[in-house]
Amino acid sequence: MTSEVIRKLLNDAFNPSLLEIIDNSTAHAGHAGARSGGGHYHVTLVAEIFEGRSLVQRHQLVYNALGDLMKQQIHALGINALSPSEQTKGKL
């Protein structure tokens, strides 16, 4: 269910041309974050808003879009946030 919420929030915030979400939570069973209910996810998204922004700025935008999910439902989040020009250069 969290994957669907992540998808909706990121789609609403960025209108990405590409959005992939990988739920790695089962690989972290027994991990402290998993015990408290937080999942492990990796997202790849391509959106115009990332053009000309630093890696830190891109990550901040994603964290802001996910808001309160970062407090409980998401324990770990890998982010690959690219601009469309970077996607065409094969940085995926």
Please tell me about this protein's structure.
It contains 4 helices and 3 strands. The longest helix is centred in the N-terminal third of the chain and has 13 residues, at 2-14. The protein has a domain at 1-18 and 39-76: 2-Layer Sandwich (GMP Synthetase, Chain A, domain 3). A 3-stranded mixed beta sheet has the order 1-2-3. It starts with a helix and ends with a helix. It has 92 residues and is α+β, with helices and mostly antiparallel strands. It has helices spanning 2-14, 32-35, 55-66, 84-88, and strands at residues 18-23, 39-46, 74-82. The radius of gyration is 13 Å and the shape is globular.
Strand order of the largest sheet: 1-2-3
Measured as a percent range, the helix fraction is 25-40%
What characterizes the major β-sheet? 3 strands, mixed
What percentage of the residues does DSSP assign to strands (E)?
25-35%
- Determine the mean pLDDT: 88
Low-confidence stretches: none
Shape: globular
What sequence of helices (H) and strands (E) makes up the elements? HEHEHEH
Structural class: alpha+beta
CATH superfamily descriptor of the domain at 1-18 and 39-76: BolA-like
**CATH class descriptor of the domain at 1-18 and 39-76:** Alpha Beta
